Queue: 4 jobs
Job 1
Amino acid sequence: MCALRQIPEAPLTSPFPNPPSWPIPRPAPAGTAPRLAWLFDIDGTLLLTEGASRQAFSGALRERLGVDDDLAGIAFAGRTEPLILADILARIGRRFEDGDEARFWDAVFAQMRMLLHPGRGLLMPGVPAILDAIDQEPQWVSGLLTGNMTRMAEIKLARFQLEHRFAFGAFGQEAVDRNALARVAVERVRTAYGVPPSRCIVVGDTEHDIACARAAGARVVAVATGSVPRAVLAEHAPDMLFDDLGEFGALLEWAREVARGV
C-alpha cells in the first residue's frame, strides 16, 4: 500500500455562506461549561447517502487518474477517507505526485455536491429530535467524530440542514487510524471544555466506532442503522445499543447518569 501524505484540504471557497467553525470548539456561554460531550459519526448514524460517497470517489478516479472502477469491494463503512483512498490507490497500483492529491480531493468534493442532490439520501430516524434534546441541556455539547474529510462532512450534513448543529469535530484528514482520530476528538474536548473521556459519548453504527471509543476511553452508543447488523454490534459490547435514535428517552436518562459521573 502506498503511503499518503497528510495534507490540508485545498483552499476552495466553502459552498456554505457561514461554514461551521470546525474543528475548533466554540466557547460555551458563561456559567454553562459542558459536563458531557456527544461525538456523532455521520454515515450510517446520522444519515445515508445511498451510495453517493462511493460514486464520488469513483467519479474522481475517472476524472483525475483516467481509471474506470466502481470500487466494489473497497470497504467504506466506519473508516477514514484517507484510508479508503490508500486502499483505492493500492488496488490500482498508483500514487500521487506533488499537488495531485489535493486536486483529487477537490474532484471528490465536486462529485459529491453533484451526486447528493435533493431527493437522494436518507436522514436517520430521530436525528433532529435528539440533537434538539441535547441542545436543551445547558451542560451538554455535541460534536462530530467522523472519517469524512471536513468538506465532505459539510456537504453531507448540509443536504439535511444539519451543518450548523455541531460545535466542533474531528475529521478524517486529522488521523488515518480511527482509534487515533477518536483520541484527537476526546483531547479536543478535554482541552476546550475540561470534559474527561469518561464523559464523552461516541455514537456510531459500526464495530469501528465501538473500538475507537474504547481506545479513547469514551463511552459508546451503537445504532443498527448502517450496514452492521444489531447482533454483530452487540458482540462488541457497546454501553448502549439501539435499533435507531428514534426512541431516545432511555438514552438521555443514561446520558444524564454519565454526566453526573455515575
Job 2
Amino acid sequence: MAPIGWTKVIPPPAEISLHSAKQWLTAAALLTLAIVGLLYFGRQGHSVVNSHSPAPDFTLNQIDGTPLQLSSYRGKVVLLDFWATWCVPCREEIPHFVELQKKYGKQGLQIIGVSMDDTIDPVRPFAEKFQINYPIVMGTAKTGELYGGVLGLPIAFMIGRDGLIYHKHIGATNVTVFETEIQHLLQNGSQQ
C-alpha cells in the first residue's frame, strides 16, 4: 500500500504530436475565455443593466459633429445599439433597425446607434451605404463602461419612456424580438 499523498511520476512522451499540441492550445483558450467570462459577468455592482435600472445619461457627438444627449429622448422608447462597422452581426442587424425606425418612429420609437469604431472615418460612408435613418454617435470606452462594459458587439438596450432599461440583448438578435418589445413599450408605456 502506498503512503497517503504518494503520487507516481509518469515521464512525458519523447515527442508531443501536433494533434496533441492543438488540443492543449484549444483547451487553454477555452479555459481563458471561461475565466474572462466569469470575471466579466461576475462583477456585481458595476453593471447598470439590471432590469428597470435607469439608463445612464451621456452626451456624445453625432457623426455630423452635433452633440446628442440621451436624456433628451425621455418620453420616447429608445433602442440603444452598441455596434461597429467591422462587426458582421451588427451589419446584419442595421437594415432591420432602419426598417423599425421607419415603421415605429412616428409612434415614439427612437433608435440611437453608438459606434464603437476607433475613428469616425469608416462610420460616415457606412451610414450612407446602409441609409441609416437614426442618429449615430461615436462611443467611448467610458460610455461602454456606463453600460456594464462592452466586450462584444452588438449589444442593444431597450429603454422605456421613463428612461429605465427593460431589456438587454447581447449578440445578434432576431428582429421579431425587438419588434415585440418595441410594440409592448409603445402600447403599454413602460409598465412590464
Job 3
Amino acid sequence: MRTYDRLVTQTAPGATPGPAGEAGNGLAATVPAATVPAATAPAAMTAKLADTVAATAGPPGRLAGLSARAAAWYAALPRRHQDVVQDAALALSLAVLNLLSLLPYQSQLHPSWLALLLVAGQCLPLAFRRRYPVPVLVASSAIRVTYDWLIFAYAPLALAPAIALATVADRSGCLLRRLTVVLTCIGVGWAQTLPGHHQPYDAIVQYFLFGTAWVVGTLSRRRRVALAAAASRAERAEASLNEAAARAATAERVRIARELHDVVSHHVSLMAVQAEAVGALLPGRPAAAATSADLIGSTARAAMSELRRLLGVLRFQDHEDPERPRLTPVPALSNLDELIDATREAGLQVTSETSGPVAALPPGVDLTAYRIIQEALTNAVRHAPGATARVRVTYEPSHISVEVTNGCPARPAIPRGQAGAAGHGYGLAGIAERVASCGGALSLGPTGDGGFAVSARLPLT
C-alpha cells in the first residue's frame, strides 16, 4: 500500500512527497482532486480495450454481413435458379479438387496447362446438370476421354462423369436411361483399352464408381416420385375434406334456416293475427282487445324462448362452456296440446285426434312431425282466418302419419304485407325438406271444399 502511494505520488504531476509514515495522507493532501480523478485510469483502460476489440472484430463483422447478404440474395432467387447456384458451387468445388490432385505431378505432365485445363473442364458442365442432364454427361465424358486419349498420367477419379450419370438416372426418361447405361458401359470399356489402363483394378474401380452413381440416381428418382405421389394424395385428401366440410356447412345452414323459419313464421303469424284483432276490437270491446294484447305478449315471449334455445345451441359447445345454462327442450309431439291451445287463442278452431298405440319416436322424426303440424296450422291462421282445422296423428308399428286439414276461410286473409316476415313462401319447402330428410312421403294440396290439406307419412327407422 505504501509502495503504491509512493509510486502514484512520484508520477502524479505537481505532487510533493509527504512524511514517510504519512504517505497516504501526503498523497491526499498534495494531489488535487481535479488532477487525478478516481475513475481516470479504469476509464482509459476500458476505452482502449473497446477500441482494440472493435478493431479486431471488424473483419469478422464484415464477413458476417457479406454472408447475410449472400444468404438473402440466394433466398430471393427462384427455385430453378437456386438449383443452378448449387450445381455451380458443386462444379467449382470439384474442379478445384481435381486441380489440387494434379499439382504435385505438374512437372511430369506435358503440357501441364492442358492437363490442368482438361481435369477442371470436365467438372464445369455440372453447373447445368439438372437442366440439361444428357448434354452435361456427354460433355463431361468427352473431356475425360480426351484426357485419357492424350495419355496424361495421374488421372483423378472420374467423379464429374459419374455425377452426370447419376443425374441422368434421376432426371431422364426410361428410353434415355437405358441408352445411357449401354453407352456408358461401352465408353468405360473402350477407355480401359487406352494406354495407361493396364491394371485390372482400374476397370473394377471405374465400373464400381459408375454403377454406384447409377444406383444413387435411381433411388433419388424413386424417392422423388414417391414424395410427389404422397403430396398429390395429401392434396386430394385435403380437397375431399374441404368438400365434405362445405357440404356439412351447407346442410347445417339449411337446417338452421328451416328451424328459424318454423319458429319465426308460427309465432309472428299469431302475433300478426292478434294485432289485427286488437285494432278491430279496441273501439267497442276493450276487454277482448286486452286479451289479444296479452296473447301477443305471451306469443312473443315463446318466440324469444325458442330463438334463444336455437341460438344457444349454435353458440356454445359442451366442452367449451361447462357452466352453460339450461336450454328449453326441442319441440316434439308431446308439446302438441300447447301448440293447439296457442292456435285456438289466435282465432282458429282446431280439433285434435290421436290414434294407435303412442310410442317413443326418434328425435328427428318427432321434431319433423311437430314442425309439419306447426307450419300447417300457421298457414291456416294466415290464409284461412275463421276456418276450422283438424289435426290427426296416427301411430303405426313402422310409421307415423300426421294430417292437418283446414276448411274454407270465413273472412279474407291478412294481406301478405301485414303478416310480417313469415309470409315469404318457405314453409312448404321446409316441410318437404324435413320429410325427405326422414325418408318419408308428403302429400299436400287444396281440398274439394276450398280448404287445404297437408299429410305426411314418416318411417320410424
Job 4
Amino acid sequence: MRQIPWMPAIAEDGALRWLVVSVLRLAARLIGRESAWDRLAIRVPATVFGPGSMQPFAEYFRGPSSVPVQSIDDIVAWLQTCEYVADFEQFHERDVWQHPASFERLRRGDCEDFALWAWRKLGEIGIDAEFIVGRVVSDDSSEIDRQHAWVVYRVDGTAFLFEPAARNPSRISRRLADAMDEYVPHFAVNHRFDTNTFVGCAADSHRRSLSSGLIALD
C-alpha cells in the first residue's frame, strides 16, 4: 500500500488529536483518493491510541514472559486458552491496557490486551508486526466510536491481519488484502516503536463531527 510522505513530528498536547486529523484531511485531498489504509509517518504519542494507553509502548516489551513460543501456531494456541472479558466487567474501569505479563497471569482481557500480547510475541520470534487501533466496519453508525485493536504482520512480503481475540479459527489470521475492507485503522506502532496515522482516522472524525462534533475512542 502506498505511504503518504513523512511529516514533521508535532508536540504532545491537548490539541494533538485534532492536529493529526487536520493533517490527514489535507493528505487525503492531496492523494486524490479515499483509502482508509493510506498512512502518514508521524510521531503519535502512546496516549493518543486510547484512554487506557498510559505508558510508552516499549514498556510492554520489558520484563519476563512466562509463555514460550516458537511459531505463530504457538501464539494462536495459547491465546485460545484465554477469555475475552470487557474492561468494565473485569476492572470496573472504562479502558485498561494490561501489560503482557499481567495478561499471562489472568488469561482474561479485551482486544487491546490480546493484541498487545500477540504483538510482543510476534516480535520475539522475529516476525515484523504492527499493533493497530481503529474501528471495525459496521453498518450501524452507532459503532463508529467503538475502539478496536488488532495486529498486522508480514511473512515473506505478504501482510496478514491478525485478530488475536477471535474464537473462530478462520477469522484469526487472514491476508490483509482480503480483510482490509472490514477495518478502518487510526494509528499503528511497529517493533521499532515508529508510529503512523491513517486516512481512516480522518474519515471517521469527519463522520463523527457530522453527528456530534466530537471525536472519541471507546
